[in-house]
Amino acid sequence: MDKNILKKEIDNEIIKKVSLYLLSFFIPTIIMIAIFAYVKVYPFGNDIYLPVDAYGQYSSFLIYFRGIFFNGNSIFYSLGKSLGGEVYGLIAYYLLSPYNLITLFFNSGNITLAYNIILILKTASTGVAFTYYLNRRKKADFRNLIFSMMYAFSAYVITYGFNIMWLDSVILLPLVIAGLDDLIKYKKFALYTISLSLTLITNYYMGFMVCIFCVIYFVYKMLVKKHKSKKEFFRRVGLFIIYSLIAGLISAVVLLPVFTGLRERTSGLFI
């Protein structure tokens, strides 16, 4: 094949992939903004979107998170929690998402707007992550956008999306599965180990659910995959166990203090 033709095909493929990622990010973003504008959520109106626990808890937690950087709030103990108590476990559950850094650009009075922006960006990132997964499974195609939007606006995201601390796992799940496919097919471990570690660190509760899914998915893939020998089969099983444990050990820097603190933790809201 002529080198110029090959180069053109590669360039077209790159342009298509970049276009898919941009569209899978901006389509959910525009849809979410349009919905907020239609129902007149601030700043498009006077209403606020802080449903259920988002109003009673998450907004206060985000204000506390912002205070860690600006007001000297401790990541270990707070007098604002009931009569005082440890907060590391609470921070590890609710506030370790990198998206929460957006709150640093808003004052406490505008935390509602920061919350909505975080929700929009996480929903958009969910679409991008699933597009990445689909592009790896087969050739990049604009039809992948249909399934990316279905994932980004799935019933789970729509119903539980206000629990923004759970959405990081929804974003990372396609990366975890793509990494697991790499581990099974090519014995490549980097994507699986890193993405699973981040899943456990950003929210250990949903991270545990993702771990269960990984076991089920791995068993399914091993059952349908043809193996050259028993040695090859057990080698893949061993790799899955080893790199899953490594991901657990990486996330232990967050998880071990959390599990220790949970035994003596008392519930309460920041005031």
Q: Can you characterise this structure?
A:
With 271 residues, the protein is an all-alpha fold. The protein contains ten helices and two strands. A two-stranded antiparallel sheet has the order 1-2. A hairpin with a 6-residue loop joins strand 1 and strand 2. It is flat and about 60 Å long. The protein starts with a helix and ends in a 9-residue tail after the last helix.
Using brief descriptors, characterize the structure shown.
mainly alpha; disordered C terminus
Task: Give the SSE map.
Layout: H1 3-38, H2 53-70, E1 77-78, E2 85-86, H3 88-94, H4 111-137, H5 144-152, H6 155-160, H7 167-186, H8 190-202, H9 204-224, H10 230-262
Antiparallel strand pairs: 1-2
What is the radius of gyration?
Answer: 21 Å
Strand order in the largest sheet: 1-2
Number of strands: 2
- Strand composition percent: under 5%
Percentage of residues assigned to helices = over 70%
Shape: flat
The SSE string, one letter per element, is: HHEEHHHHHHHH
What structural class results from the helix and strand content? mainly alpha
Q: Which ranges are low-confidence, i.e. pLDDT below 50, for 5 or more consecutive residues? A: 266-271
CA-to-CA gap between the ends? Answer: 68 Å
Average residue-wise pLDDT: 86
How many strands, what sense, and barrel or not for the largest sheet? 2 strands, antiparallel
Number of domains: 1
Secondary structure tally, helices: 10
Briefly, what is this?
With 271 residues, the chain is mainly alpha-helical. It is 70% helix and 1% strand.
